[in-house]
């Protein structure tokens, strides 16, 4: 677009660069150390926490129909929980991978 | 009765779901018990009425510009939803092909007199002066985009063009500042200005008073961003990044309203000449639209009264340099 500078266009390129993620790449996890896990040390994996959207809580009520308000909060919270559940599944999958690899090394 | 709050929905590129968003948000607000009027100012692409079950409107916005009616109230059509009315647009551009600035201002004054809590303008695609002026005259501008590079470029370009258009209009009588703004909007300007922040610094060198006024005009701009048709977490991340981009170069802080998930039911609902919220309120996209409507109703700045004053006071003379340029 002609009203944009080269810097702006470059930043837009950067912005969209992650739109098509490389599916072959693994999600980022803690760097694997073969000595960890195999010798029984605890593997530290951060568990995401549920944070209630401040914008929902702090906003003034739109109308006195409490049921509609509650529905919005519920939808939002459920969406947040679903996102966190997905992250937890990812983390557990990686944990199982680490344990299996550690076991395999012990067998070898 | 208090003045209605005017929201304008734009975004530069066509096909990103501006009308879909406007129609569904209007339905959402009406369901909250608000009095809502949607106005289709999408010239050449007026289709908002289709979302609200109206096949061929008998009256359109053109009737106002052709002076067949004296008030916009006479053109409002009822919809099947309580508290939601529509002022249909027209694909015939007679009378509104290129309305002068004061005609648009007069139109906005009439819009403000409509008896509603919220008036939503669907300004359509492109960066014509009509689109930019109507967008920037509203209390809140909502930019709808999708997670595709051309749409993001268009949306950003639209935001940039609307800000500069507004500044040129407001400072048309301050010749030095007007000239500086006009240069700054050109990405290869002689002054080497690369952002609104740098424009403000240059303006301070000319006149600290004018620069302060310029800064407060920029601060008063209320912009919201919505990313539509989102399908994964990578696409969800686009909205906050767009906010950062606008902050970096344009010195305003838009609010990211959220993302609307892609839903095949949107097309289905349009085929049935209705909105997604009416067709399937359980759909994930419906929930996101309801949430967006809710979030949009929270005022960010105490702009409504000041904006109303601005429209009342605004000079009816044409913006000289800005308007003299040919429409893109």
Describe this structure in words.
The complex is a heterodimer of chains A (108) and B (328). Chain A has helices spanning 6-16, 54-58, 66-107. Chain A has 108 residues and is mainly α. Chain A has a domain at 43-108. In chain B, 47% of the residues lie in helices and 13% in strands. Chain B is of the alpha/beta class and 328 residues long. Chain B has helices at residues 18-31, 48-51, 62-65, 101-112, 129-137, 149-170, 175-184, 196-206, 208-219, 233-236, 238-250, 265-271, 276-279, 284-296, 304-313, 320-324; strands at residues 5-10, 36-40, 77-78, 84-87, 118-122, 140-145, 223-230, 255-261. Chain B has one domain (5-148, 222-324): 3-Layer(aba) Sandwich (Rossmann fold). Residues 321-328 of chain B have low confidence and may be disordered. Chain B is globular and about 55 Å long. The A-B interface holds A 1-9, 11-13, 15-16, 18-21, 55, 59-60, 62-63, 65, 68, 72, 75-76, 79 and B 31-34, 127, 147-149, 152-154, 156-157, 160-161, 185-188, 194, 232, 234-235, 237-238, 241-242, 245, 248-249, 287, 290-291, 294-295, 297-298.
Kindly summarize this structure in a few lines.
The complex is a heterodimer of chains A (108) and B (328). Chain A has a domain at 43-108. Chain A contains three helices and no strands.
Characteristic terms for this protein:
heterodimer, A: 108 residues, mainly alpha, 3 helices, flat, B: 328 residues, alpha/beta, Rossmann fold, 16 helices, 13% strand
SSE string of chain A = HHH
Count of β-strands of chain A: 0
Question: Total domains of chain B, how many?
Answer: 1
Poorly predicted regions of chain B are 321-328
Radius of gyration of chain A: 22 Å
In helices, the fraction of residues of chain B equals 40-55%
> Main sheet of chain B?
8 strands, mixed
Q: Name the average pLDDT of chain B.
A: 88
Pick out the low-confidence regions of chain A. Answer: 24-43, 45-64
Shape label of chain A: flat
Question: What's the CATH class of chain B, please?
Answer: Alpha Beta
The helix/strand order of chain B is EHEHHEEHEHEHHHHEHHEHHHHH
Query: Quick one: which chains have the greatest interface?
Result: A-B, 29 and 37 residues
Mean pLDDT of chain A: 66
Would you identify the CATH H-level superfamily of chain B?
Answer: P-loop containing nucleotide triphosphate hydrolases
CATH topology of chain B: Rossmann fold
Characterize the quaternary organization of these chains: heterodimer
Structural class of the secondary elements of chain B? alpha/beta
- The number of helical runs of chain A is 3
């Amino acid at each position: 677009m002609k009203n944009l500078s080269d810097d702006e266009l470059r930043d837009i390129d950067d912005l969209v660069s992650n739109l098509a993620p490389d599916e072959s790449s693994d999600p980022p996890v803690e760097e694997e150390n073969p000595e960890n896990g195999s010798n029984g040390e605890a593997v530290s994996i951060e568990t995401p926490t549920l944070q209630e959207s401040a914008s929902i809580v702090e906003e003034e009520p739109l109308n006195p129909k409490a049921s509609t308000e509650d529905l919005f909060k519920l939808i939002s919270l459920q969406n947040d929980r679903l996102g966190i559940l997905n992250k937890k599944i990812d983390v557990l999958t990686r944990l199982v991978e680490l344990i299996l690899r550690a076991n395999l090394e012990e067998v070898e | 009765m208090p003045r209605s709050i005017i929201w304008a929905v734009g975004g530069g590129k066509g096909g990103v779901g501006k009308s879909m968003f406007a129609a569904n948000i209007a339905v959402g607000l009406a369901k909250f018990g608000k009095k809502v009027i949607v106005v289709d100012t999408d010239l050449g692409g007026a289709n908002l009425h289709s979302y609200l079950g109206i096949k061929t409107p008998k009256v359109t916005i053109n009737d106002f510009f052709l002076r067949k009616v004296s008030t916009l109230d006479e053109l409002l059509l009822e919809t099947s939803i309580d508290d939601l009315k529509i002022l249909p647009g027209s694909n015939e551009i007679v009378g509104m092909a290129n309305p002068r600035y004061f005609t648009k201002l007069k139109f906005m004054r009439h819009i403000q007199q409509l008896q509603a809590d919220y008036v939503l303008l669907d300004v359509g695609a492109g960066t014509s002066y009509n689109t930019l002026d109507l967008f920037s005259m509203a209390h809140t501008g909502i930019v709808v985009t999708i997670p595709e590079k051309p749409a993001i470029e268009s949306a950003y370009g639209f935001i940039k063009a609307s800000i500069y258009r507004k500044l040129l209009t407001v400072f048309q009588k301050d010749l030095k500042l007007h000239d500086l703004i006009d240069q700054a909007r050109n990405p290869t300007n002689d002054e080497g200005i690369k952002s609104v922040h740098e424009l403000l610094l240059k303006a301070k060198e000319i006149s600290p008073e004018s620069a302060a006024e310029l800064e407060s005009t920029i601060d008063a701009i209320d912009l919201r961003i919505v990313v539509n048709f989102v399908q994964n977490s990578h696409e969800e991340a686009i909205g906050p990044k767009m906010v950062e981009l606008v902050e970096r170069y344009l010195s305003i802080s838009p609010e990211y309203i959220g993302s609307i998930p892609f839903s095949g039911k949107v097309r289905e609902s349009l085929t049935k000449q209705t909105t997604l919220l009416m067709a399937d309120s359980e759909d994930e996209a419906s929930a996101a639209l309801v949430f967006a409507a809710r979030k949009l109703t929270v005022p960010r700045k105490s702009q409504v009264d000041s904006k109303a004053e601005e429209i009342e006071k605004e000079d009816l003379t044409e913006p000289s340099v800005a308007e003299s340029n040919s429409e893109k």
